[in-house]
Every structure is written in C-alpha cells, then in structure tokens.
Structure to design on (385 residues):
C-alpha cells in the first residue's frame, strides 16, 4: 500500500474516533441529567454507552470492521435500555439520537472508503431498524431519533467519501510534481553532461587541432605527437563508452590514476615543459582531495596554463598552492601582456566552462586579476572535504 493511502486511512480512523467519542460523551451527558433514568437501568445504559466508546476507540485504532460492528451492536443495546424506561422523555430521545446518529454512524467513515459495502449496509440497517422497533414498542416518538440516525449516517458517509477523494486528488498533484521534478532533474543532468563534454573536448581535441592549424608554432614535434596520442587514447575510450570527464584531460594521460596532488602536479609541469612553458611550483605539494574536486582543480589549472602559453607572450608561469582547514587555493601568475577582464566575452568556452564551470560544479570559484602590460593572476579555490 502506498504511503499516502496509509496516511489517508489513519486520518479517516482519527476522524471516526473523534466523531464517535463525541457522540458517546453527548449520550453520557444526557444520561447524567437527573430523572432521565434510574437505578439499574441507568447503570446498564451507561455501561452500554461506555462499551460503544470502547469499541469505537479500538476499531479506529486497529482498523477492524468486526470491532466497528461490535460498536453498532453495543449502541443498539444502549438504545434499547434507554428507550425501555426513558420513553418519550426529551433528554432520553436526545441520548438515543446521539448514539444512533453520531456514535454508531461514525463507523461509516472508514468503512465506506474501504468499500465494505455489505458490512456498511448491514450495520446501517440494524442501527436504523432496531431503534425504530424499540421506540415503537415503548410508545416513544420515532421521528426525531430516526431522522437523526439517517442524517448522521449520511453525513459520516459523505465525510468519508470527501476525504478519500480530496486525498486522491492531492496524490495526483504530488505525482505530477514528482514527474515534473524528475523531468527537470534528467534535463539538468543532460545539460551538465553536455557542458562537461564540451569542457574536456575544448581542453583536449580542440586544443590539439588548434596547434595543428597553426603548424605547431612554439611546440616541438615530440610534444605535439604525445599530445595527439593522449587525445587519440581519449577518443578510443569515448568510443568504448567510457565517461568523458572521469579524470582524463589534456594535462595527463587518460590511463593515469593518481591519488595525490603532488604526483599529478608534476605530470602537469612536465606536459607544459614539453609545450615550451616553464612552470614553477611553490607551496603545498601533497594534498589529498576527492576525485571530482581534484579533476576540477587540475582541469581549471591546465586551462589557465594553456591560456598563459597561448596568449601571455611569455614562456614562464608560476603556480602557488596553499591550503587551510577549509579551502585549497592554486594561484597561476605570469608577467605577460595582460588584459582587461571586463572586456572578455563571458560566453567564451575556455574560461567560462573549462575554468569557472569546472570549479563551480564542485563548490569552488575562480577570480582573475589582470591589466594590460601588468601580467595576469588567476586564483582558483576548491573546498576541502
């Protein structure tokens, strides 16, 4: 059974319990009015009414149709005792109306939703016919008590149906919201994967093609062959269905599986040394990070160094790595031509996705400090686990 159906049944039983016990309390209050009943009959009627309350409570606690039927039978016994002596007394008739129209009728609230049609019909007939016969035999008026009983059963049945349908409509709305959320989640994951694909392709295959288009200016044939070989291995992995950004990028071979930053930084330094950029490393060298955070930091770092190599006009760069209890920072600096950050197109894939996008995906950020003729410094930050 779905959770919402369980909650519905619990709510119906609670409403039935409150309604039934209210009818029992009203009947007992009527019996306590002086002169309504006397002696043994009063005790017997009070005990029967109390039994109605006990059976209503147990039936709504356990969801038992049998206990609900016992509550109806107890109600009939109470009506018979009250009608036998109370006769036409208005207070006695009010007690009978409370028992038949509220206490006994409350059992219809959960029963009608559970589609126990036979049990509902039988208990309804008994709770109407028996009081009618008892009142007729005692000579008491039957109009008001029977009208109260019928109205109570109809009201309780309508309440149960209304609650059931209201919860069903709510469940449909929740399901619609869930489907919309699932569709949005899938769309977000697809967009994230496409952006991730674009980052890696920009940093690998497109970078190599750009070098080839410029005849490998500034890069030795051996370094160019090695980079092209790394890209070829990456493409083979993609053809076999491997994830596109699972640690493979332009700065180290797809087969590498380093766990510490020190070893991976060295591979980055060696790669750019082959490309003609001398990278000097400073600061921490052995910092363990989660794999996705490490990939994001190294991917962004590699793109920054690639920008230095291609755009700064210098052959040297400095990378300073620091950390505290919460953050790892990598600062990439060069003394090149510099630029005006405000004039850079924010839609350019290189910085927007390969640097900012990568770091944002793991909770990090990137800041650029540069001006024409004064070099460039990029601060990369990622959180520690």
């Amino acid at each position: 059974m779905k959770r919402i159906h369980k909650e519905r049944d619990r709510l119906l039983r609670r409403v039935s319990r409150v309604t039934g016990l209210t009818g029992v309390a009203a009947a007992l209050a009527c019996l306590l009015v002086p002169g309504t009943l006397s002696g043994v009959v009063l005790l017997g009627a009070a005990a029967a009414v109390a039994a109605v309350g006990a059976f209503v409570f147990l039936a709504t606690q356990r969801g038992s149709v049998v206990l609900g039927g016992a509550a109806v039978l107890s109600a009939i016994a109470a009506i018979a005792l009250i009608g036998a002596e109370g006769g036409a007394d208005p207070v006695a008739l009010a007690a009978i109306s409370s028992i038949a129209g509220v206490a006994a009728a409350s059992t219809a609230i959960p029963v009608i939703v559970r589609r126990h049609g036979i049990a509902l019909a039988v208990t309804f007939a008994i709770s109407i016919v028996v009081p009618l016969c008892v009142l007729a035999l005692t000579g008491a008026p039957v109009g008001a008590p029977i009208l109260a009983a019928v109205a109570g059963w109809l009201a309780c049945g309508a309440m149960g149906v209304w609650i059931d349908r209201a919860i069903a409509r709510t469940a449909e709305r929740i399901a619609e919201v869930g489907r919309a959320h699932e569709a949005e989640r899938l769309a977000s994951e697809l967009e994230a994967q496409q952006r991730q694909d674009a980052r890696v392709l920009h940093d690998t295959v497109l970078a190599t093609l750009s070098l080839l288009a410029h005849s490998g200016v500034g890069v030795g044939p051996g370094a160019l062959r090695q980079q092209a070989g790394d890209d070829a291995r990456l493409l083979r992995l993609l053809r076999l269905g491997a994830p596109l950004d699972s640690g493979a990028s332009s700065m180290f071979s797809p087969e590498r599986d380093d766990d510490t930053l020190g070893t991976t930084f060295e591979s980055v330094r060696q790669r750019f040394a082959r490309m003609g950029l001398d990278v000097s490393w400073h600061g921490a060298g052995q910092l363990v990070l989660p794999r996705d955070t490490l990939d994001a930091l190294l991917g962004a770092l590699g793109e920054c160094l690639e920008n230095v190599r291609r755009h700064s006009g210098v052959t040297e760069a400095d990378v300073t790595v620091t950390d505290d209890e919460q953050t790892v920072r990598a600062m990439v600096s060069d003394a090149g031509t510099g630029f005006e950050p405000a004039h850079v197109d924010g839609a350019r894939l290189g910085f927007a996705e390969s640097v900012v996008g990568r770091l944002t995906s793991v909770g990090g950020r990137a800041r650029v400090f540069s001006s024409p003729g004064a070099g460039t410094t990029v601060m990369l930050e990622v959180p520690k686990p």
In short: The beta strands are 278-283, 316-323, 327-334, 365-370, 376-383. The two ends are 40 Å apart (CA to CA). Confidence is low (pLDDT under 50) at residues 244-260. Residues 3-174 form one domain.
